Amino acid sequence: MQKWIRTCIERLFFYTPHISQAKLTETFENKTILITGATFGIGEACVRKLAQIPCQLILVARTEEKLISLKNELESPHCKIHYIVADLYDISSSELIYQQVQQLQLKIDCLIHNAGKSIQRSIWKSIDRPQDIDRTIHINYLNPAHLTRLFLNDLKTTSNQQHQSQILVVSTINAKLFAPPLWANYQASKSAFAEWIKAIQPELKIHNINAALIYLPLVRTRMILPTAQYASMPAMLPTKAADAILACAAHNKRQWQPWWLSIAQLCCIVFATPIQFFYRNLLKRNM
Ligand SMILES: NC(=O)c1ccc[n+]([C@@H]2O[C@H](COP(=O)([O-])OP(=O)(O)OC[C@H]3O[C@@H](n4cnc5c(N)ncnc54)[C@H](OP(=O)(O)O)[C@@H]3O)[C@@H](O)[C@H]2O)c1
């Protein structure tokens, strides 16, 4: 696709709210923010923005060298950076992260659930791969749900009328659309956590905790590299995705999604049968 056409499509379809430095400071100044998946892509973009303001960051991911290099590069007298090496495929990791935060004697004001795993694989190729189901459900649903549960009392005590505590969930537009074949594990695990968050949103709100779901379209990160057809498709920049996530906290929003997602949702309902037919034919052709 021509570069200028791609740029126009990206501007039109991937518009995100701008969040000023002043608003970012007003929202996160002196707050303690834990972010999972902080080493690359969207998580790293959030970290780089938050490190510009006076706050404490707790970065969680597996790649220790990258965590150390981010700390060395971004830590400053006004922004203290801690890191925790954890593998969110492992179901015990949420408890370990919680214990390490307790040892640091920190109380969390904002929890950003960003780490995620996507897999595109046919169910027929997954017969001997139980890990595809386990890993996606652990990182995309169970560990974020347990982390939320564990930090809930902290979030309740750090919130007040002026500043609500925040739980920011990086989700995907797929969670609102027709489930596509080959993506069953990603779709199911992301949708499960989105539903879980939606169900607890009112319970949290009455204690001044805002939980927001950010339904992102395609974002140009290393996550999309294994899917060849995404290489030339329009995609959002990680910095723009970070703006959408942080703006939800700044404005206490319940969700952010691209402006066209509701139209796409309606199309998925109206055209459910032709969409099934289209997918079946596509799969047969590629067999
Ligand atoms: N890219 C997209 O098109 C897109 C679209 C919609 C939603 N999203 C969502 O956006 C979020 C961030 O994705 P991204 O695109 O920024 O991907 P990315 O560039 O691959 O980054 C993923 C982050 O998650 C961490 N991570 C991966 N597996 C982990 C594990 N087992 N334990 C702990 N941390 C782990 C990675 O760090 P380590 O490797 O160091 O552990 C990395 O920091 C995900 O939740 C994804 O579902 C992405």
From TrEMBL:
<comment type="similarity">
    <text>Belongs to the short-chain dehydrogenases/reductases (SDR) family.</text>
</comment>
<keyword id="KW-0472">Membrane</keyword>
<dbReference type="InterPro" id="IPR036291">
    <property type="entry name" value="NAD(P)-bd_dom_sf"/>
</dbReference>
<dbReference type="GO" id="GO:0016020">
    <property type="term" value="C:membrane"/>
</dbReference>
<keyword id="KW-1133">Transmembrane helix</keyword>
<protein>
    <recommendedName>
        <fullName>Fatty acyl-CoA reductase</fullName>
    </recommendedName>
</protein>
<dbReference type="GO" id="GO:0016491">
    <property type="term" value="F:oxidoreductase activity"/>
</dbReference>
<feature type="transmembrane region" description="Helical">
    <location>
        <begin position="259"/>
        <end position="279"/>
    </location>
</feature>
<keyword id="KW-0560">Oxidoreductase</keyword>
<dbReference type="Pfam" id="PF00106">
    <property type="entry name" value="adh_short"/>
</dbReference>
<dbReference type="InterPro" id="IPR002347">
    <property type="entry name" value="SDR_fam"/>
</dbReference>
<keyword id="KW-0812">Transmembrane</keyword>
